[in-house]
Amino acid sequence: MGFDPTVCYNSIVAAGNGPCPNALGTASSYHCLDAQESGPIHVFCSQAGIYYSPFAYSEAYDPSKCAPNEYNAVKCDEHVFADINDLVTFIVDSGGKYKSRPCYCCCSCLAYGTPIAIPSGMNAIEKIVVGDLVMGASMQVAKGKISFEWTPETVSFSQGTPPSSPTSGIASTMVFIYCDGDLGLIATQDQLMLLSTGKMKQAGTLVPDIDLLVSVDGSAIPIQSVKIGNWQGGVHHITINKSTSPDVNGHLLNANGIVIGDFQLQINPQGLGDMFEAGPMIGSDEYHTKNKSLNMARGVYGVKKAKSKSITLPKHFNLFSETSSYIPADASRFITTTQAIDIVGNPDAHFRPFGNKSGISGINYLFQLYKGFFPDFNFYLDWDDISPNAYAFNAYGVKNVVISGGLVRLDGLYIEGQAFIIAHCIARLMNLKDYKGPHPLPTIEADYYGMGLVMPMAWSFNVYGIDDKAIAQMTQLWGYIAPEDRGGNPLKPQEDPSIDCRIRTLMFAQLGGELPPCAKPPVQLLEITGAETGITVDKKPYVILTFNRVVDQESAQKPANYAFDPAAQISSVQVQQTDGLHVQIIADFATNVNYNVTVKNVTAGDGAPLDPKKSSITFKGE
Q1: DSSP secondary structure letter of residue 439
Q2: DSSP designation for 208
Q3: pLDDT, position 230
C-alpha cells in the first residue's frame, strides 16, 4: 500500500481546499515532503489512520493573476517554502506583488526496496502495510555491549511517496551509507541510525571511520563511506508499536541487517534526550570542515580504502557531480575565479547545504520571467556547482546563462540580487544598437547595461525598489571578497574593474547616468606607427603615414598640421578611405634625402589626441 496521489488530491479538493504546488506537495504527489522538518507536521503526519487528511500549510501567490480561492501552480505563480521564514521574506521582498494563503498537502523515509525483517524473512519496505508483522527490538546495554530481543511487532503506520519520473526534475536528497560486509542503505538525511554507543544519530550526520552502526546481533559495523545525492526512487516510512513514548525499545527495526529507528523515533529525535547525538549535516560547510580528511569527491566522504571508492551506486541514486556543467574557457564570468574562491573561504559567508533546495523555485521563476523578455537565451541552474558564480556564453549559436548552485545557496542573496546577476549575464551577450565597444560586453559594461537596461525591461512596475535591494545584496556579496582581490586592474578598468567601481556603476545606471569616470575605458592616444614612400603615376613623390587608430578626416587632411625637416612643399593630403588608418601626403620630396615629419593637431576619430612621444617619424624620399 503506497502513497496514492489521487486519493490525496481528492481528499484535499473534497474538503474545499487548494493543493500546494511543487516543492511541498509536488505536481505528482501533493505530499508534505519538504515541510516535515516542522514539529506540527511531524506530529500530524505520524498519526496513523489520517494519512490522507489535508494538512494546512502556506504558500505565496500572485493575486493579480488568480482569485484567492483559485489554485493553479503555474497560472497563479504559486511558491511554497520548507521554512516559513523564507516564505515571509519572499512576500516582504516582493514589494506587495505576492500575498500568502493556505494550501494543503498530505503527509516521508527509507528508499523503496529497503529490506525490512519480518517473521518469515525480509520484505521490501514499500510492500509493508498497516497490520503486517515486522521484527522489532528492545535493546539492552551491559558492560559496553549491545544486545537485542527481537519479537514480532504490528505495523501501525505505513506510507511514503512513489518513484518520480527521470524527466520530471523531481528528486529527494538522500544519503547512501556503505558499510563493511557489503551492507548498504539509502535513507533520508533525518533517518535515525543506532550507533555502537547506544545512541541514535541521523543518517545525514554520520561520519565514516568514526561512527559505528550496529548489526542485528549487536556487533559494530564500520562505515566505509557516506554519499549525498539525488534519489528518484520512492521513499517510505513505517512505525511499529502504537506507543508514542520517547523510548527506542519497541521502535527499532532490522533494515538490511542494520538497526535503525522507525518513523515514530524519527519525527521527534530531541525527545530521546541524551540518547540522541546531533551533528552537522553532510553537504554543509561545517561537516566538510570537520571531516575534510575524509572527503573523496563532491558530497562523498569515506575511509581511505580502495574498496570504498569503487562502490557501484544504486539505480536511481545520482551523486552531486564533481565537474558540474560544461563552462567554456572563454565564458564571461560574473566575478573572477579568485574572487569566487575568496567568497567560499570567507567564514562570514554562509551557504545552505546541498539538500536545502529552498531557493530553486525562486531562481526558476526568474528564468521564466527573463525567458519571456529574452526568448533567444537559454537559462540553466547548475545546482552541483559550489562556486558562487554565474556564466554567459554562446554555444552552437545559442546564448546561454548558467547560475551556480553556490549562488542560490548563499545566505543573504535573494531574488533581487539573483535577478541582477542574471541581468548582468544577459547584457554580456546582447547586441546593443548604439554600443560600439568590445563584445561580449566587458564586466563593467554588463553591470551598467544589466542594471540600467535589462532590469527596467523585466521589472518596470517596481524596478527602483528591486534595484535598491539588488545593490545592497551585491555590496554584501562582493564584501566577502578578500581586500587584495577587490582592487581590479587599473590598466583594464572595464574587463577587471574594482569592486568600488562596480558598486558605483550600478548606482549610476539605476539613476540614469552615464558610466562613472572609474568605469570608462582608458583613452588610447593616436600614434604614428609607420611611413611608406613612393611615386604617383604622374611622377609625384609621396609618403603614406600609418596611424594606430582611425583618424579624424577633417584634422588629418589639413596641410598645416604636418611639418617636414628639411622643408617640403605639400601639394595634397588625403585620408585613404579603405580603413581610415593611412594618410597620403604628396610633396616635393627630394630623392634619397632623409626627412622627419612631425604631426600636430590631428586627432583620432573619437577625438583622442595625438601622443606627443609618437607624433613624428623619419623616412627617405624617392
Answers
A1: S
A2: T
A3: 72
